[in-house]
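anyone seen this seq b4? input:
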Amino acid sequence: MALHVVLVEPEIPPNTGNIARSCAATGTVLHLVKPLGFSIDDRSLKRAGLDYWPFVKLQVHESLEDFLEEYGEGSGRMFLATTKGDKLYTEIDFADEDMILFGRETAGLPRDFIEERKENAIRIPMGEDARLRSLNLANSVNIILFEALRQLGFPELG
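predicted toks r here
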């Protein structure tokens, strides 16, 4: 049993390192979709992930198109985490092998990609203050990931 976190074009090494740590600790598969804003050998990325990197179930994809070719239509459910989602993440009944996609820290997921899959767009509720565009990526991943894990009964976690 596994969930999948998909980071599409992540830019900030410490965010990815912290997400990798959460994925390692929960048995979640981490997908990184290029281009990346850093090298996965980057010292700051490894420092953020500490000694967890050998335990991360990591898959790297050359592009969003390559990722979709492998995991697209019919492979399982994909949810798009975006401030433009109509549904709250708590309205989803998560299941084994679900994939949760997150976009770049500065721009999110591509607009056309969201529009084509609007029914699967989910969001974390936030205040309406225009100065707060979104939460930190690592925090957002953990909020949604742990809700999905809670719903699944924290499989294989103590």
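The first helix runs from residue 13 to 26. The mean pLDDT is 90. kinda curious what u guys think
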